[in-house]
Amino acid sequence: KPRVFSGVQPTGNLHLGNYLGAIRNWVKLQHDHECIYCVVDLHAITVWQDPADLTRAIREVAASLIAAGIDPTTSILFNQSKVSAHAETAWIFNCVARMGWLNRMTQFKEKAGKDRENASVGLFAYPNLMAADILAYKATHVPVGEDQKQHLELARDIAQKFNHDFGVEHFPAPDPLILGEATRVMSLRDGTKKMSKSDPSDQSRINLTDSPDDIEQKIRRAKTDPLPLPETVEEVAARPEAANLMTIYAALADESLADVVAAFAGKQFSDFKRALTERAVSVLSPITGEMRRLVADPGYVDGVLRQGGERAAAIAAPILAETKRIVGFL
Ligand code: AQP
């Protein structure tokens, strides 16, 4: 079976973008792939995290993943800091990747903002750690949202440069799996900005912990233009807010965007938003309920992460030993 690796940061509640762009695909891949899914706490601390909040977020994100359908008896689910191969491989990759490569990463530019001198070194080197996450297991398939495409290309470059520098065929070049209709879910307040955990406005996103009332209210207030719904797929492309809501609908309903356009062409947004709310609540409510049940029993979640960490470490250990041998460590 092809080996899959993917991760999610415990930096807050998971949102609809994480779910439709990544996690839902993780669930589907479990049947015919060997899946390793990671709550990437080492990545989270590239920006300041309050320690108690971080601990809680690791448990909650793990619980959300299980609630969303990750089966920890088949897939491996753990938090990154449990397996030291990530950090060890990342250091080697810090010495393989070039400053120029990292200087081109758009996510660093967005997250560091204007005050780049004050960003952590970890935030800059983040893509090297992400390459290490994947290659520490020689994973070949990486299901992510569109925003991670550039980092995946960097992981391929690192694998190729490592192999070339040492004259080996050690690391496979991993492929991104960018699947489904909603590979880039946008903010509900601004159709040109991606939906994100770190957006200061909670109205900009639908969290997996939101109640049906929250969901209804956020969709009702979501920004739209004053026109009725678009009548063609071409028209959708020119109207970012309509495009975002219709794409979300298509993904939730497992329909194509063209089908959604056909069903709602020329209708009013108020009608469409009611239908969208119904879809969102019916997909998300069962996940929210199950997640609440799981976080009430942290012993269970902690046990899953501990066992997952042991299984992950067993796969990573021989690969890391070989990596070190190739580099020449005695
Ligand atoms: N808006 C999105 N649409 C589609 N996919 C998305 N992903 C994130 N946002 C969207 C995908 O979710 C996975 C996990 O993301 P992450 O939490 O590790 O990192 P992120 O991309 O940094 O997510 P956020 O929400 O934007 O967090 P902050 O605000 O903390 O940076 C990834 O596969 C990602 O593609």
Automatic annotation (TrEMBL):
<dbReference type="GO" id="GO:0004830">
    <property type="term" value="F:tryptophan-tRNA ligase activity"/>
</dbReference>
<dbReference type="InterPro" id="IPR050203">
    <property type="entry name" value="Trp-tRNA_synthetase"/>
</dbReference>
<dbReference type="InterPro" id="IPR002305">
    <property type="entry name" value="aa-tRNA-synth_Ic"/>
</dbReference>
<feature type="short sequence motif" description="'KMSKS' region">
    <location>
        <begin position="194"/>
        <end position="198"/>
    </location>
</feature>
<keyword id="KW-0436">Ligase</keyword>
<comment type="similarity">
    <text>Belongs to the class-I aminoacyl-tRNA synthetase family.</text>
</comment>
<keyword id="KW-0547">Nucleotide-binding</keyword>
<feature type="binding site">
    <location>
        <position position="133"/>
    </location>
    <ligand>
        <name>L-tryptophan</name>
    </ligand>
</feature>
<keyword id="KW-0963">Cytoplasm</keyword>
<dbReference type="InterPro" id="IPR002306">
    <property type="entry name" value="Trp-tRNA-ligase"/>
</dbReference>
<dbReference type="InterPro" id="IPR001412">
    <property type="entry name" value="aa-tRNA-synth_I_CS"/>
</dbReference>
<feature type="binding site">
    <location>
        <position position="185"/>
    </location>
    <ligand>
        <name>ATP</name>
    </ligand>
</feature>
<feature type="compositionally biased region" description="Basic and acidic residues">
    <location>
        <begin position="190"/>
        <end position="202"/>
    </location>
</feature>
<protein>
    <recommendedName>
        <fullName>Tryptophan--tRNA ligase</fullName>
        <ecNumber>6.1.1.2</ecNumber>
    </recommendedName>
</protein>
<dbReference type="GO" id="GO:0005524">
    <property type="term" value="F:ATP binding"/>
</dbReference>
<keyword id="KW-0067">ATP-binding</keyword>
<keyword id="KW-0030">Aminoacyl-tRNA synthetase</keyword>
<feature type="binding site">
    <location>
        <begin position="194"/>
        <end position="198"/>
    </location>
    <ligand>
        <name>ATP</name>
    </ligand>
</feature>
<feature type="binding site">
    <location>
        <begin position="9"/>
        <end position="11"/>
    </location>
    <ligand>
        <name>ATP</name>
    </ligand>
</feature>
<dbReference type="Pfam" id="PF00579">
    <property type="entry name" value="tRNA-synt_1b"/>
</dbReference>
<feature type="binding site">
    <location>
        <begin position="17"/>
        <end position="18"/>
    </location>
    <ligand>
        <name>ATP</name>
    </ligand>
</feature>
<comment type="function">
    <text>Catalyzes the attachment of tryptophan to tRNA(Trp).</text>
</comment>
<comment type="subunit">
    <text>Homodimer.</text>
</comment>
<feature type="short sequence motif" description="'HIGH' region">
    <location>
        <begin position="10"/>
        <end position="18"/>
    </location>
</feature>
<keyword id="KW-0648">Protein biosynthesis</keyword>
<feature type="region of interest" description="Disordered">
    <location>
        <begin position="190"/>
        <end position="212"/>
    </location>
</feature>
<feature type="binding site">
    <location>
        <begin position="145"/>
        <end position="147"/>
    </location>
    <ligand>
        <name>ATP</name>
    </ligand>
</feature>
<dbReference type="GO" id="GO:0006436">
    <property type="term" value="P:tryptophanyl-tRNA aminoacylation"/>
</dbReference>
<dbReference type="InterPro" id="IPR014729">
    <property type="entry name" value="Rossmann-like_a/b/a_fold"/>
</dbReference>
<dbReference type="InterPro" id="IPR024109">
    <property type="entry name" value="Trp-tRNA-ligase_bac-type"/>
</dbReference>
<dbReference type="GO" id="GO:0005829">
    <property type="term" value="C:cytosol"/>
</dbReference>
